[in-house]
Amino acid sequence: MIFAIIAQASAAALDSLSKAKIEQNAQRFNQIDPWGVGMTFIGMAVVFLSLLLLYILFLNITKILNLKLKQSLKKAGKEEKEVKEVFETSGDINAAIAVALHLYMSEMHDHESTVLTINRVTKTYSPWSSKIYGLRQYPR
Questions:
Q1: Distance from C-alpha of 88 to C-alpha of 80, rounded to nearest angstrom
Q2: What is the end-to-end Cα distance of the chain in Å, rounded?
Q3: Which domain holds residue 44?
Q4: CA torsion sign, 86 to 90 to 93 to 95?
Q5: In total, how many domains does the chain have?
Q6: Tens digits of per-residue pLDDT, 28-63?
Q7: Which of 44, 79, 100, 117 has the fewest CB atoms found within 10 Å of its own CB?
Q8: Helix or strand or coil: residue 18?
Q9: 132 vs 125, 128, 129, CA distance in Å?
Q10: φ, ψ of residue 95 in degrees (nearest 5)
Q11: Are residues 25 and 43 in the same domain?
């Protein structure tokens, strides 16, 4: 019984994905929107709505994580004052962290000597700068 239902569903899916059905749907869509303006607006709307949802998600994810952390700290038996101290960091602490990260990242790179090793060639002739290969030649 279940196999018959699955077979019918797969047959219906294959029928809807057949080349004739795709061609028929494409022709119908071409009749509805011959210049593709509607499809353009739909595509742009999908992209901008997804960007808006991602913005809202990233904006609120820190608030949600902080709320969950506060709840877990309260369950652990921390007092309200101790919970606030965990989340409040001053500008001095943030500046110290930034300086430490900068110093750490700058030490990761190799210090190379700044000596240039370009040697001049004594032969200065090059056909690129030769006047005899110019584009215009005046006959006399």
A1: 12
A2: 99
A3: 37-100
A4: positive
A5: 2
A6: 888 988 898 989 999 999 999 999 999 999 999 988
A7: 117
A8: coil
A9: 12, 10, 9
A10: -65, -40
A11: no
Judge whether residue 74 has pLDDT over 70. yes
Give me the sign of the Cα torsion angle 21, 25, 31, 35: negative
* 3 and 49 fall within a common domain: no
**Same structural domain, 42 and 94:** yes
Query: Residues with Cβ < 8 Å from 39, sequence gap 6 or more?
Result: 29, 33
CA distances from 89 to 96, 102, 104, 113, 123 (A): 11, 19, 21, 41, 66
| pLDDT tens per residue across span 98-137 | 999 998 888 766 666 777 777 776 666 666 766 666 666 6
In a 13 Å sphere around the CA of 113, the CA atoms on its Cβ side amount to 3
Task: Please list the alpha-helical segments (H only) found in 17-79.
Answer: 19-32, 37-75
Same domain, 24 and 48: no
53 & 95 share domain: yes
Q: Is 117 helix (H, G, I), strand (E, B) or coil?
A: coil
